[in-house]
From TrEMBL:
Protein name: Glutamate dehydrogenase
Upper lineage: Bacteria, Pseudomonadati, Planctomycetota, Planctomycetia, Gemmatales
Residues reported to bind substrate: K82, K106, S363
Any one GO molecular function term: glutamate dehydrogenase (NAD+) activity
Residues reported in the UniProt entry to bind NAD(+): T202, N233
PANTHER family according to UniProt: GLUTAMATE DEHYDROGENASE (PTHR11606), GLUTAMATE DEHYDROGENASE 1, MITOCHONDRIAL (PTHR11606:SF13)
Organism: Frigoriglobus tundricola
Record's keyword annotation contains RNA-binding: no
Pfam families: ELFV_dehydrog, ELFV_dehydrog_N
Keyword Repressor recorded: no
UniProt entry keywords in alphabetical sequence: NAD, Nucleotide-binding, Oxidoreductase
Length: 430
């Protein structure tokens, strides 16, 4: 009989989060499919370590505001834990725990010597003024100093953070330990030991996977159309890279609204427009028409790329999708109810733990370069990224075909089993 993790106790501090429950549901399914050892499965259900901190910050108007920050390390079995830091108004402990769990599977799929981690601060970065973001970042770094380190836990940018945020973390940590320690974060400026191509890595990885899917489906990229939800780092780079392979991006949305042009959106002009308006939005772009947000996912296209938030494709809208390929640039964009619907459709799903793994892969390259103090050029970075992404894509497809399961189940199985094997080999201390 297949083992599966037990139901979560009411005392579980993460259980109020629907995103965490979604991650647990996925793990239970993999446990059933792979007959995962019950003891290992139970250990994988809960993070290794979690820390909640209060972050008092002196605001520009002179008052003090206290923010709540989180850092969750899901697994340290495979090596240092690795994962982004997001600034988002509604981020909570359960969401961060789910993202850390997914990062463990992602590192397993890519065969990286990392466990999964994630961090978050409950703040809308768009509302921060002057030096508030820097003060917030530095104080957060100081508060979690006891659980981070280049061989313990390495942060990277995520939603609401960027290479400047990582530079502040690098500097704060280095001041505390007394020497320059660039390997404490990845995704930092190239001048400080960052890796060329890291900022574009997630979007490039998404398009490497899309290209492979189109090849398998025998669809010429130059005849393909694409819709992208989210126009931050991942969505914008994905859009640029889609144009490079000949695809036509016909609709794009962000937190403020959505636009469409069936003749194709000029992505370069849209990026220039976005950079000049106050809200940094795609809304109001003169070479496209505004459409309701709900229409973005139902726009007929070859490739749909959700590249923003979790749980945007649900049981309510999954049967309305009109794409041939669903490429999950975001983490957890499809909930389990939608998964069940998609499994019965002809949509080719590229699951998040594979599709957006380019970011952590090049983060690994950056970490290795910082440890060795020997930097690669961009050609080498992109070549290695493509090789790793295509290798992982092939492994997932072979697993899916061999076991006659969905791409998501195949990808998660590969990631979970790698961590499970390592836990079993290392044993249980004491």
């Amino acid at each position: 009989m297949s083992a599966m993790p037990p139901a979560q106790p009411a005392s579980n501090p993460f259980i109020s989060s629907p995103t965490y429950l979604m991650a647990c549901q996925q793990l239970r399914q993999v446990a059933r499919e792979t007959e995962l050892d019950e003891g290992v499965a139970e250990r994988l259900m809960l993070p290794k370590r979690s820390q909640i901190v209060s972050i008092p910050v002196r605001m520009e108007d002179g008052r003090t505001e206290v923010f709540v920050g989180y850092r969750v390390q899901h697994s340290l079995t495979s090596g240092a834990s690795k994962g982004g830091l997001r600034y988002a108004k509604n981020v909570d402990l359960g969401e961060v725990a789910a993202l850390a769990m997914w990062m463990s599977w992602k590192c397993g799929i890519m065969n990286l010597p990392f466990g999964g981690a994630k961090g978050g601060i409950a703040v809308d970065p768009a509302e921060l003024r002057g030096g508030e973001k820097e003060r917030l970042t530095r104080r957060f770094t100081d508060e979690i100093q006891n659980i981070i380190g280049p061989r313990v836990d390495v942060m990277a940018p995520d939603m609401g953070t960027d290479e400047q945020t990582m530079a502040w973390i690098y500097d704060t940590y280095s001041m505390k330990v007394g020497y320059a320690c660039p390997e404490i974060v990845t995704g930092k400026p190239v001048e400080l030991g960052g890796c060329v191509g890291r900022k574009e890595a997630t979007g490039r990885g998404v398009v490497y996977c899309i290209t492979e899917a189109l090849n398998e489906l025998r669809i010429n990229p130059e005849t393909a159309t694409a819709v992208v939800q989210g126009f931050g780092n991942v969505g914008s780079v994905t859009s640029e890279e889609l144009v490079k392979i000949g695809a036509k991006v016909i609709a794009i949305g962000d937190r403020y609204g959505a636009i469409r042009n069936d003749r194709g959106i000029n992505v370069a002009k849209l990026l220039a427009y976005q950079s000049t308006n106050e809200r940094k939005t795609v809304v109001g772009f003169p070479e496209a028409e505004a459409i309701p947000d709900a229409e973005l996912f139902t726009t007929p296209c070859t490739v749909l790329v959700p590249a923003a938030m979790e749980r945007v494709i649900t049981g309510e809208n999954a049967n309305k999708l009109k794409c041939r390929v669903l490429a999950e640039g975001a983490n957890g964009p499809t909930d389990p109810a939608a998964d069940a619907i998609l499994a019965r459709s002809d949509i080719f799903l590229i699951p998040d733990v594979l599709c957006n793994a380019g970011g952590v892969t090049v983060s690994y390259f950056e970490w290795v370069q910082d440890l060795a103090q020997f930097m690669w050029d961009e050609e080498e970075v992109n070549s290695q990224l493509k090789k790793q992404m295509l290798r992982a894509f092939t492994r997932v497809r072979e697993e899916a075909k061999k076991r006659k399961v969905t791409n998501r189940t195949a990808a998660l199985s590969i990631g979970v089993q790698k961590v499970a094997r390592e836990k079993a080999k290392r044993g249980l201390y004491p």
